[in-house]
Amino acid sequence: MAKSSNTSKINLLLLIGLLILASCASRPILYPNQKFNAVGEEAAQKDVDQCMEASETYLQKYRAAGGRIAKGAARGAVLGTVMGGVSGLLFGNASKAITAGAAMGAAGGATGEALSPDQIKQAYVNQCLQDKGYRVMGWD
After folding, report:
1. What pLDDT digit, counting tens, does each position of 84-95 carry?
2. Are residues 55 and 124 in contact, defined by beta-carbon separation less than 8 angstroms?
């Protein structure tokens, strides 16, 4: 039984890691406006790279993402534990419900906190590209 619990924890951590990596890999999609057409795809992508690097440098001092993720996971785990306990008391098997609630709450709390820095980065990159004359349609 302990082996199954460890496997579940490992799977949960892998899922959180994949979500974080997937959100970091996104790039802006540029509208082919006059600026884009004038400089071409290759130069536009270099400008995207420059804006993304500049965002990393600028936002580094504001990132305490590891701390926010851990705090979000802890808050989520506490809330999930309470909700799992109530569910277990109402429907039986309280210990299993508490464990499941804590795991789901931690995952939700960590994921919710992990998205915030990427949203800030996207806003920075969007503004940087706009300042260069591009129009961002969205992110892939």
Report:
1. 665 566 666 666
2. yes
| Whole-angstrom distance, CA of residue 104 vs CA of residue 108 | 6
Total domains in the fold of the chain: 1
Report which of 133, 113, 117, 130 is spatially closest to residue 26, judged by C-alpha positions.
Answer: 117
HEC readout, the chain: CHHHHHHHHHHHHHHHHHHHHHHHCCCEEECCCHHHHHHHHHHHHHHHHHHHHHHHHHHHHHCCHHHHHHHHHHHHHHHHHHHHHHHHHHHCCHHHHHHHHHHHHHHHHHHHHHHHHHHHHHHHHHHHHHHCCCCEEEEC
Q: How far is CA 36 from CA 29, 48, 125, 135, in A?
A: 11, 11, 16, 9
Is it the case that residue 78 has pLDDT exceeding 90? no
Determine if the pTM surpasses 0.90: no
The letter for the amino acid at 91 is: F
Q: In terms of residue numbers, what domain contains 135?
A: 2-139
